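user:
I keep going back and forth on a fold encoding question. Separate attempts, laid side by side, tell us more than any discussion would. Would you put together a sequence-and-structure record for a protein of your own picking? Write it directly below this note and I will take it from there.

assistant:
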Amino acid sequence: MKVTETFLKGCFLIEPTVFGDKRGNFFEVFNKKIFEEKTGIQVNFVQDNQSISQKGVLRGLHLQKGEHAQAKLVRVIQGKVIDVAVDFRKNSLTFGKHFSIELSGENNKQLFVPRGFLHGFATLEDNTIFSYKCDNYYNKEAEDGIIYNDKTLNIDWKLSEDEILLSEKDKNLKTIVDFKLTNELS
């Protein structure tokens, strides 16, 4: 397993070693011991989530605040996404900076998104299966987020505006400016 820290401290790209032959392939999706040795981060995942989405679905940018903050290990089982992690830790040198990567069922790459980050993804293919582990339980009262097209973030979602499909909740997320006015950052 290859583990590489992105330019956002604590955010890691994980590339598993895939063993294949004429029968198919095999790889270890997650190994706590190896992850902790290579990152120095101790993690205890307590919840697994999965979604299936059509092309153009954009989910995010979400976070859980305060004591309900979550670190996530995200991957795509089938299909393809642009996955985005935004450093939203108030005292971070890279606050407001984002890292994006294409995750797919073919490349098997994963992204570890630490607590205090916004996270979102946009599906680039129909029937994309997105899976992620969380180190804390979901809490509805602690959920928040920033609108996907916030001008200060300037994220390239690899989709045209008319291709993007949003939930009602995600259509009504705040900008960073509005968020700062109504919330205390992590």
About this structure: The radius of gyration is 16 Å. The longest strand covers residues 80-87. DSSP finds three helices and 13 strands in the chain.
